[in-house]
Amino acid sequence: MSIAHRWSDLRPWLGTLARLGLAAVWLVAGGSKVGDLAGSGRAVAAFRLMPADAARLVGAALPFVEIALGVLLLVGLATRLAAAVSAALFAIYIVGIAAAWARGLSIDCGCFGGGGQLAPGQHPNYAPDILRDVGLLLVAGFLVIWPRTRLALDEWLLVGEAT
Amino acid sequence: MSSRANKKQAARVVRDQIARERARARTLWISIAAVAVLVIAGLAGLVVYQSQRSGEHVNPQHATANGDGLVVGSGPKTVDVYLDFMCPHCKDFEETAGGSLNQMAAANQITLAYHPVAFLDNASTTKYSTRAASATGCASDAGKLTEYVQALFANQPAEGSAGLSDDQLIQLGHTVGISGSGFDTCVRDGKYRPWVQHVTDQALNRGVSGTPTVYVNGKQVEPSLPAITQALGG
């Protein structure tokens, strides 16, 4: 079997792995915040990138959007779109964390719940957060380029149709 | 032979064409549905958030002008302290700096404003931050705010626990000398819970995102007694 053949056989399964991995990240991230929407708003406000009122609304909407993205990716519906929205969100998060770092803010990103200003004596560690989001951005990018994956609703809905 | 093959080929091209069109249409509809799902999810978040917010609030006695805190003393300089009764660092701060600040307020050297916020409601199973902060409003009505704040920190529950029950919060009020049933019903009814939400929102609007946070004459300083006395001018 040629390498090209092997890649085209393997790729949809790699895509499944990427899709489910991304779905898990969104479901955990959204699920950890959905029980405390006010806290989620505070975490957004701590970045000081928008007025507190706007941050409250973004903080309330975000966990639900994250869970919805997780569900879409989990079942494999509109994979390319969900992956593109995911990539856009990761890019925004990376910019937000980098901006907090550059301005010397001492906050917790609140990526998986919690968030807000750190207590005195606690030091933020932004690099791992950014690296993680860059990794996730690459995974999402893979799905934007190759959205057809195995075990996906997309595959079933578009069965027999030209790709 | 060649003409039949051509026809077959043409038919296949047409079939492929139709299939591609159909796939495109279906993909479009799936995408529209997915976008709708995301938008609805976001709106659901806003609706849930709005429904969680309580409506009108009443300010306790001795509240600040805009109702975002509780005032002790009437000195020329102001010290604003943002605290959460579930926050261990706030307890440390109260134990090291609280006494001196209360003395300065009692001597009317400073106007001390406590802003009891509910940032850490998720650190207890019963929204202890909100309940305790709400009870301070009741204590302020009874004129025993500083004593009650000290008692709350002295009896701070562990993170992740249920916190003190409403009955225990009432009991604590009695130990600092609050009498009369007004305090008891005030705590039990959660009279000032909407007010705590207001305090928390106002704190956020001011840029407070953690506790303890301290302002001296409107300028943020490190939450420590030396930093505060220095900012007050020795």
From TrEMBL, chain A:
The keyword Endoplasmic reticulum does not apply. GO terms for cellular component: membrane. It is found in: Membrane. GO terms for biological process: methylamine metabolic process. It is a multi-pass membrane protein. It holds the Pfam family MauE. The keyword Membrane applies. It comes from the Bacteria. It comes from Planosporangium mesophilum. This is Methylamine utilisation protein MauE domain-containing protein. The chain crosses the membrane at residues 54-74, 81-102. Residues 12-144 form the Methylamine utilisation protein MauE domain. Keywords: Membrane, Transmembrane, Transmembrane helix.
Automatic annotation (TrEMBL), chain B:
It comes from the Bacteria. Residues 75-223 form the Thioredoxin-like fold domain. Belongs to the thioredoxin family. DsbA subfamily. GO terms for molecular function: oxidoreductase activity. This is Thioredoxin-like fold domain-containing protein. PANTHER family: DISULFIDE BOND FORMATION PROTEIN D, GLUTATHIONE S-TRANSFERASE KAPPA. Keywords: Disulfide bond, Membrane, Oxidoreductase, Redox-active center, Signal, Transmembrane, Transmembrane helix. The chain crosses the membrane at residues 28-49. Gene3D superfamilies: Glutaredoxin (3.40.30.10).
